[in-house]
Amino acid sequence: MTTAQAPEPTTGRRGRTARQAARLARTMEHLPYLTRKLPPVEVVSVEGLEAIEHNADTLLQEVGIEVVNFPEAVEIFRGAGADVQGSRVRFERGMCREIVRASAPRIFTQRARNPERNVVIGDPHMVLVPTYGSPFIHNLDDGRRYATIEDFRNFVKLTYTSTTLHHGGGTLCEPTDLPVNKRHFEMVYSHIRYTDKAFMGSVTHPSRAQDSVDMARIAFGNEVFENEHVIMGLANANSPMSWDFNMLGSAKVYAENNQIMLITPFILGGAMAPVTVAASATQTLAEALAGMAFCQIVRPGAPVIFGSFASSMSMQTGAPTFGTPEPQLVLFVLAALARRLGVPFRSGGNFTASKLPDYQAAYESAISFMATMQAGVNFNLHTAGWLEGGLAIGYEKFMLDEDQASMAGAYLGGVDLTENGLALQAMLDGGPGQHFLGSPHTLANFENAFWRSDLSDNNSFEQWELNGGHDAAERANAAWKRRLAEYEEPLLDQAVHEELVAWMDQRKASFPDSDV
Amino acid sequence: MTTAQAPEPTTGRRGRTARQAARLARTMEHLPYLTRKLPPVEVVSVEGLEAIEHNADTLLQEVGIEVVNFPEAVEIFRGAGADVQGSRVRFERGMCREIVRASAPRIFTQRARNPERNVVIGDPHMVLVPTYGSPFIHNLDDGRRYATIEDFRNFVKLTYTSTTLHHGGGTLCEPTDLPVNKRHFEMVYSHIRYTDKAFMGSVTHPSRAQDSVDMARIAFGNEVFENEHVIMGLANANSPMSWDFNMLGSAKVYAENNQIMLITPFILGGAMAPVTVAASATQTLAEALAGMAFCQIVRPGAPVIFGSFASSMSMQTGAPTFGTPEPQLVLFVLAALARRLGVPFRSGGNFTASKLPDYQAAYESAISFMATMQAGVNFNLHTAGWLEGGLAIGYEKFMLDEDQASMAGAYLGGVDLTENGLALQAMLDGGPGQHFLGSPHTLANFENAFWRSDLSDNNSFEQWELNGGHDAAERANAAWKRRLAEYEEPLLDQAVHEELVAWMDQRKASFPDSDV
User: Fold this and answer.
1) By CB neighbour count within 10 A (0-12 exposed, 13-18 middle, 19+ buried), where does B431 fall?
2) B149 phi and psi angles, rounded to 5 deg
3) B201 min Cα distance to partner chain A (Å)
4) Residue-level pLDDT at A447
5) Which of residues 120-179 of A touch B (CB under 8 A)?
6) Cα A328 to Cα A330: distance, rounded to the nearest angstrom
7) Distance of CA B460 to CAs A132, A136, A391, B57, Å?
8) Is the peptide bond preceding residue B325 cis, with omega within 30 degrees of 0?
9) Distance from the first to the final alpha carbon of chain A
10) What DSSP character marks residue A511?
């Protein structure tokens, strides 16, 4: 479809650079996360939410959680009072909820290497984070191919220079050119070196979680590491109702170090749960409660985030589908359940099953992201880049999503009902048929009145054609190249860097490469 | 960007046709409009809504409405008790609201030529309608060019064969190859002949409104015409606070015939109103109240729809922008105000400023349409086709929007909290780690469990590539050609048709062509 050549920017480079610098400066004056004034959207009554909570407790009590290949975790649950039979762990009604409520923080701060970029995670705030975990990349130049560590660094840099994304994310893509058992070193190193935003570590094996945590300790120093939350891990349940060694083992490492654990059941409706919205929500709640309770038993007070990833399914092929109504309804229900539980909530993003940044990709992404903005999500993984059901991260998709997601601040700001917002006098001063372009109220408010995309083209057809007639993906292609060309590394203490590299070299040399 | 050649459909033609037929049959079993179970999204407190209503009354009282070139309308307002000074009409606080509340129906039926397609307009229903008023068309074959009567007929046919769109709409595009003062004959004729869905008539001059109404009388016969609502007109205020001869004159024609009037202030924030959300809502309410009151004074009980069209503006160029947060907030506020007033509400659609069906177009459209689904819109003009700020209707855009908008039924259906929806037993019967693909609950619910797009591609990358690697716009290009090729005219009584053509020929011959 689209050609790979980079179009000229629609405005001169100097103008755009200056504008971006001004915008960055403006952004940095504000807090490096969003604050919600708009009430969250509720789609189910309190009675409905109570019914779902009741059923989640029934699942935990009757079915329980299968703990796969991790006897130590079974013992941890048994020690807290759970009913254990072999590797099956069952919980009395309300037990997990009470454990979580007793010690999990409602809101906490993740420290960034640059403290001005610390993010606050919990109501009424929202933190935007790039996509996670794709083995492939897509761009207009190469099409789709396996991701490399070079791609990984590129996305670290694009995230660092983004004024929309507040957090550096984690496995932005899989560096498939590195051995599987040593990728985490280079990923965590890149997050420490090429950005100063908060980041996530590895969870593919508890030893890799430990390496990630150890590297964070070097980067932040012992004192900060001991007293603050500087790294986050993401654990997915093996739905239905199962947690395995790698995930719970990694969760244990993060929790015992008082670091952050994002507990996310991943549910493809019809496969890992029944096909209904309420069932997806019920099972997600049950599985997440068990995971979050585990972290609180390991270390009461260690921060956890209640996560949900839910998708619908094609009746024809069994493929996951995105931007459909059902996952948005699941999202709204789970956000409400997280508020009732009193922990930060993660879900949503710019999701699509499309293979390229086309109409389908954008429509599905926008439907997903609108719900994300509305539901009361506190931590939004997958804000930018997601393509092909998560199998690929797109360079153009990243830029387009990041650009559109910058609307979230204006949207969450809600309706201004101050005297200036109501603007009665301005309307009384104008007369019928008179325009407001030059009115004092307009002049006083114009600059911040309307959110505006940097990549959308709102010109006339004629002007757009004169500028080359490029579609949005072609404009985004030019934009990511420009951003990477202009990238400059943030400061990193030389001694810290040397210690980190030495530690990493020693660890990497201590065991052979492996692709499992 | 995209090439114009029509790709093969991703499934065989027979399979797709059969599937479409089955889908059509399924749709026709249901009511030909949607029913909302989901609670509407509220973004402002009751106190906030009251403040806006208070200020709208202040505007009507202090500034009033300028009635341009239409002394008869001034007299009509004076007769109802308004304060008149020259062409300026002012209303005591609450006067317009009381007039509207006293006689405007909360809900009414628009009769379609095929009574099985009658639409019910008002809460809790939603009627989806194609876009309106574009002078240009866009498709992948021709690019952008002026619209013709052939295009108009094509969009009538595409709307007729749509299982998503409930209503035929009005000026689907401007047939610029016909004289301005006679276009309405061919447009209304096409709506009567090539479809049997409900439709809209002309409002560009009161005489053209009268012609439209007269043609509807012939098509439906005197008895139906006298007793039912068979045609609708759309009037835009000249914001701020002004109504002109063509619009109020046309409104008078529709209202005195007990036909439907859609009263829509069109506000580009910063130009026709102050730049804030609350001010756009206040002024829209004031202007719409005056317009709806006018119709009720002319004929108490004539159906009116409270409309709003609000867009934001680019700070750089003054161009309207779409899919931005501010117009969605305006939409939510006005839907709430319409509920309080007790009249059906029209707003929203799949809006964009993009010139082609690209990422920008889809993102902006989806953000707009998600709010449209959520707010409690009863009549949704501009559901499908809108490009370039409304200057163009796109063939591919129409198909893509119509396809995506078919999700509205599932979305408005909300969360099923019945025993089947909660699906507790299915979860208790399954065990940890077991999939649900073959469970009795899944098999019983699978077919209707998830909404699914017909144009989105959810296949694997490899399968998608094998199918030609087409983007969504290319698939839509094939789809509209297929739909037009398969189109068959609905039945129309031969005598009615002859009477209509004879009447039209006589009227057309009675005055010279003109391009004003």
Assistant:
1) middle
2) -65, -30
3) 26
4) 87
5) 136, 144
6) 5
7) 19, 13, 10, 57
8) no
9) 37
10) S
Q: Which of B240, B362, B417 sits opposite A432 (nearest CB)?
A: B240
Residues constituting chain A: 516
pLDDT tens for each residue of B320-351: 999 999 999 999 999 999 999 999 999 999 99
- The more confident residue out of B317 and A103 is A103
Range of lowest pLDDT (A179-193, B106-120, B205-219, B306-320): B306-320
Using a CB–CB cutoff of 8 Å, tell me whether B404 touches chain A.
yes
Give the amino acid at B148: T
Amino acid letter for position A28: M
Q: How many residues in chain B?
A: 516
Could you tell me which residues are beta bridge partners of residue A237? A265
Q: B193-246: per-residue pLDDT in tens? A: 999 999 999 999 999 999 999 999 999 999 999 999 999 999 999 999 999 999
Which range is least confidently modeled, A26-30, A119-123, B498-502? A26-30
Confidence (pLDDT) at B461: 97
d(CA A318, CA A268): 9
Contact state of A275 with B441 under an 8 Å Cβ cutoff: yes
Q: Which of residues 236-295 of A touch B (CB under 8 A)?
A: 238, 240-242, 269-279, 282-283
Strand partners, B67: B243
Per DSSP, the residues of B132-192 read --BSEEEETTTEEEE--HHHHHHHHHHHHT-SS--S--S-SB--TTS-GGGHHHHHHHHHH
Yes or no: say if B49 and B340 are a contact pair by the CB < 8 Å rule. yes
In this structure, are residues A100 and A289 in contact, taking their beta carbons and an 8 Å threshold?
A: yes
Output the six-digit token pair for B235: 């009037």
Nearest by Cα to B129 from B90, B179, B164, B86: B164
| Phi, psi for residue A346 in degrees, rounded to 5 | -120, 130
The residue type at B111: R
pLDDT score of A17 more than 80: no
Q: What is the dihedral of CA B227, B233, B55, B340, to 10 degrees?
A: 40
pLDDT over 50 (residue B10):
no
CA-angle at B166, arms to B160 and B171, nearest 5°: 65
CA–CA separation, A360 vs B359, rounded Å?
8
DSSP, collapsed to helix, strand or coil, labels residue A103 as helix
* Distance of alpha carbon B313 from alpha carbon A449, whole angstroms: 9
CA distances from A88 to A38, A65, A75 (A): 42, 6, 11
* Distance, CA of B358 to CA of B79 (rounded, Å): 53
Structure token digits, residue A173: 């893509």
Decide: helix, strand or coil at residue A100: helix
